[in-house]
Specification:
Layout (H helix, E strand, L loop, with lengths): L1 E8 L2 H12 L6 E7 L13 E8 L36 E3 L5 H16 L4 E8 L4 E7 L3 H4 L4 H15 L8 E5 L2 H23 L3 E2 L5 H11 L5 E6 L6 E6 L3
Parallel strand pairs: 6-7
Antiparallel strand pairs: 1-3, 2-3, 4-5, 5-6, 8-10, 9-10
Length: 251
């Protein structure tokens, strides 16, 4: 169905840009109607802003499909913090980080200090995958506090570690931090959910909108369904409420 929002700006282009930022869409995905032209006023006084109506295609209103709840310690699921729409590093067979690896040592030093301040009895184990990404497994006790609700604490730890390791470096590396296999469990849960939703979309020939997810979770869903016959996926909305739509496709 078509929806629209109205936006204002100092000129028509500024008003359109403000609407696109709010919707999280590109110019090609909307149609624009200018409601009021900007009026500069006299000597910059008494002017009025431009006003535009931006229309966009929205999925059919369906009850949002619940994203599987992340587990408390020992249950199922996982998240991963990444910058918006940045593809996460693939999980590959890892080898032990080589002795004398400055980055691995920096990761261990940073996380050891952070875990001590969090009063968590755990140690980081670092390995390197075939792409040169650093994989860190936190091993110890009290890891529920490290994972946090829906992996939010683990995401924050990963971001901080990546910043600490890459700060001042010319070549950036990716750092993936996990605990108790949380990320793999979460990814598997999201993939199962995506396939269940895709089955319903094909069966009923109606689009279904998932609950808000972070960039990594959306990436998992897009990847899981990229070759699924009869469906396509895309994202709508703006952070932190950006959602994935699983849409019926007749192609």
């Amino acid at each position: 169905m078509m929806k629209f929002i109205e936006s204002t700006g100092k000129n028509e282009e500024a008003a359109i840009a403000a609407a696109l930022r709010e919707l999280g869409l590109s110019r090609d995905e909307v149609s624009v109607e200018v409601l009021e032209l900007a009026k500069p006023g006299f000597l910059g006084i008494g002017g009025t802003p431009a006003k535009v109506k931006v229309s966009y295609e929205a999925p059919d209103e369906e009850p949002a499909v619940a994203v599987p709840a992340a587990p408390e310690r020992g249950d199922d699921p996982v998240d991963e913090a990444v910058e918006e729409d940045e593809a996460p590093a693939p999980v590959m067979a890892a080898v032990a980080a080589p002795a004398g690896d400055d980055r691995a040592e920096k990761i261990v030093d940073f996380l050891t200090g952070l875990l001590e301040r969090m009063e968590v009895n755990a140690v980081p184990q670092v390995s390197v995958d075939e792409e040169g990404n650093y994989l860190v497994e936190l091993v110890g006790e009290g890891l529920g506090a490290v994972i946090g609700r829906r992996g939010e604490t683990l995401d924050a730890i990963q971001q901080l570690t990546g910043y600490a390791v890459n700060h001042g470096q010319q070549r950036r590396v990716r750092v993936r931090v996990d605990a108790e296999g949380y990320r793999s469990k979460r990814e598997e849960s999201l993939e199962r959910m995506a396939r269940r939703v895709a089955d319903k979309v094909v069966r009923y020939r109606r689009n279904m909108t998932l609950e808000p997810m972070n960039a990594y979770e959306r990436h998992v869903v897009h990847t899981a369904l990229q070759d699924y016959p009869g469906v396509t996926t895309y994202s709508v909305g703006v952070e932190p409420n950006r959602r994935t739509v699983v849409a019926y496709s007749q192609e």
